[in-house]
């Protein structure tokens, strides 16, 4: 068995950002037009009038102030309210591949590695843009990596599940190094006409390079001390989009073919589960919660993160202990906790213990204990 380290991380941030105010302005223009177009039916009580959204509510309920997006114009157009990402020919790299490669190149550079040092690619994300060939194999080709690649999806927890998968392969000697990437175009599956959720997601891609400890030469190494995963079935976060939709014409275009959630219930269910899993995981590794210098948590909702760390520490966490990136990135699904990790790791002292944790649809929860080398 080999010891495993994370030797580099990378981040791709789209060029455009949308503020809450811009998003709400577009949403409210849609609401206004809908209510005019349906005035007679609303008057007869056949159609329910829509209610405006509010930037103040969004920030207060979620902590989100803005989000980066792959296409701003299409999302903000009240006639469209979806990103416009034109089709590409099969000879061009796909959007997900392009984002993944940008993040991966940064991770390779930080690790001081080239494609020749890597034996595998895992693309782990919530939304894969096609059925096949696997995006991971396309990324492998784009970077010139020899070996194997596969895609996996465990929604917002895809990165921690990907890390466990990559770490186990390296431990067993099946690969020297594996690149685990999380390209997330969350705006592609977000219903921008749904007041309850139109503000939740943003787009980004992250990359984590995992290597055999005895081969790694990077200045930015974290030992993978242990990983622990948990899944338990729930319908409170669901998206019914899929290849069988065409076999059930009655459902085509229905709202359930995009992201749908019961936010309050998710909040109530998930927070205790995450705190419990991280607590048990630390205990299994003879570590106290007070030993943990940093929690890089999934970035969905600020109050959720406050509550989870408070349950663990028995007090409020400082921003240094539990860094926040959702204020400017919103929820980027599997990329969120890795963005927090990528942006807030260099100041940690040698030997510091830290936890990377994800949680989301499934439910799926992951905890990765790391130690700075
Ligand atoms: N603008 C203004 N008001 C809004 C609104 C909007 N965009 N959306 C909802 N509201 C209103 C509701 O109508 C409700 O009004 P009422 O009290 O008069 O009925 C009130 O605000 C509270 O709505 P609720 O949906 O209960 O808000 P919340 O406090 O639960 O916050 C979330 C909503 C989504 C931010 C929050 O539940 C959450 O983040 N949950 C966890 C989600 C999560 O992590 N998901 C994982 C996805 S991977």
From TrEMBL:
Domain Beta-ketoacyl-[acyl-carrier-protein] synthase III C-terminal: 282-371
MF-aspect GO terms: 3-oxoacyl-[acyl-carrier-protein] synthase activity
Matches recorded under Gene3D superfamilies: 3.40.47.10
Tree of life domain: Bacteria
SUPFAM superfamilies, alphabetized: Thiolase-like
CDD domains assigned: KAS_III (cd00830)
InterPro entries: ACP_syn_III_C (IPR013747), ACP_syn_III_N (IPR013751), Thiolase-like (IPR016039)
Keywords attached to this entry: Acyltransferase, Transferase
A biological-process GO annotation: fatty acid biosynthetic process
Span of domain Beta-ketoacyl-[acyl-carrier-protein] synthase III N-terminal: 150-226
NCBIfam families assigned: PRK07515.1
Protein name per the record: 3-oxoacyl-ACP synthase
Origin organism lineage: Bacteria, Pseudomonadati, Pseudomonadota, Gammaproteobacteria, Pseudomonadales
């Amino acid at each position: 068995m080999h010891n495993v380290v994370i030797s580099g991380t990378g981040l791709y941030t789209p060029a455009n950002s949308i503020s809450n105010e811009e998003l709400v302005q577009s949403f409210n223009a849609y609401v206004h037009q809908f209510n005019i177009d349906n005035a007679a039916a609303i008057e007869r009580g056949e159609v329910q009038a829509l209610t405006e959204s509010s930037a103040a509510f969004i920030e207060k309920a979620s902590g989100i102030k803005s989000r980066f997006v792959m296409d701003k114009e299409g999302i903000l157009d009240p006639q469209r309210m979806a990103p416009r990402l034109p089709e590409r020919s099969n000879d061009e790299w796909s959007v997900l591949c392009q984002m993944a490669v940008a993040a991966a190149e940064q991770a390779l550079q930080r690790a001081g590695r080239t494609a020749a040092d890597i034996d595998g690619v895992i693309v782990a994300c919530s939304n894969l843009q096609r059925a096949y060939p696997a995006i991971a194999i396309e990324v492998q080709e784009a970077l010139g990596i020899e070996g194997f690649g596969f895609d996996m999806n465990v929604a917002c927890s895809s990165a921690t599940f990907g890390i466990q998968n990559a770490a186990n392969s390296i431990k067993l000697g099946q690969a020297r190094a594996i690149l685990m990437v999380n390209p997330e175009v969350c705006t592609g599956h977000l219903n921008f006409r749904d007041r309850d959720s139109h503000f939740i997601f943003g787009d980004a891609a992250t990359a984590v390079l995992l290597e055999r400890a005895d081969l790694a030469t990077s200045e930015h190494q974290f030992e993978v001390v242990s990983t622990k995963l948990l899944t338990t079935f729930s319908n409170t976060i669901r998206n019914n989009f899929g290849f069988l939709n065409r076999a059930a014409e009655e459902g085509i275009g229905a709202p359930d073919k995009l992201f749908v959630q019961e936010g309050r219930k998710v909040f109530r269910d998930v927070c205790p589960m995450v705190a419990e899993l991280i607590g048990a995981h630390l205990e299994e590794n003879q570590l106290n919660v007070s030993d943990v210098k940093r929690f890089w948590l999934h970035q969905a909702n600020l109050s959720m993160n406050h509550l989870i760390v408070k349950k663990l520490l028995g007090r409020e966490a400082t921003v240094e202990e539990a860094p926040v990136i959702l204020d400017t990135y919103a929820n980027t699904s599997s990329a969120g906790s890795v963005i927090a990790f990528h942006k807030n790791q260099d100041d940690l002292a040698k030997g510091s213990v830290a936890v990377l944790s994800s949680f989301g649809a499934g439910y799926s929860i992951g905890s990765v204990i790391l130690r700075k080398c």
